[in-house]
Automatic annotation (TrEMBL):
Sequence positions that bind ATP: G10, A11, G12, K13, G14, T15, R127, I137, F138, G200
Catalytic reaction annotation: AMP + ATP = 2 ADP
Protein name, entry field: Adenylate kinase
Lineage: Bacteria, Bacillati, Actinomycetota, Actinomycetes, Kitasatosporales
HAMAP family reported in the protein's UniProt record: Adenylate_kinase_Adk
Protein's GO biological process: AMP salvage
EC nos: 2.7.4.3
Record text about domains: Consists of three domains, a large central CORE domain and two small peripheral domains, NMPbind and LID, which undergo movements during catalysis. The LID domain closes over the site of phosphoryl transfer upon ATP binding. Assembling and dissambling the active center during each catalytic cycle provides an effective means to prevent ATP hydrolysis.
Amino acid sequence: MRIVLVGPPGAGKGTQAAYLAKNLAIPHISTGDLFRANISQGTPLGQKAQEYMRAGQLVPDEVTIGMAKDRMQQPDAAHGFLLDGFPRNLAQAEALDGILKADDLKLDAVLDLEVPEDEVVKRIAGRRMCRKDSSHIFHAIYNPPKTEGVCDTCGGELYQREDDSEETVRKRLEVYHSETEPIIDYYKAQGLVVTISALGKVVEVTQRAMAALGRD
Ligand SMILES: [Zn+2]
């Protein structure tokens, strides 16, 4: 299966992508991993991306598209893949169609994780990280530490990342609405969109997604 996963920040996209890719036995291709791999291997695209990032500029679509194309042409992706974070705008979606069409391939589904905006803000703005170990993560409402501001695991100080502030989350949601949501309409016109609720436990959302993809 060739699947694109979309959803606003805070929908749990990365977590769902990992589980779904495992259940469907296809590689999980995330934009974050693409960038990290290309940069650490020093590929020409990775070097280009790094130049823009160092200058504090957005990496142009053609660089991201090139990385995704290379990755989709690896042998493990021959029978399918799950894209996470790509395409993130209409230009990338059109480029993806072109890449697939050139090999006589097409997407099977676009899985849209839906979560109410206030819930997104609650999820992200409630996150608290440990200063000593970034894998110690708590949530003010859903997973509060025993003592406010103190890590249960190591006693480190808990803090809120700047990226997780309500103001930043609202801004990220705005970007999602203006840039990424148009691709949902684009794919709806192709009859590819499957929308599921991203509320509930991780395992429940995965089951819902598998059922929606006809793979339960
Ligand atoms: Zn800790």
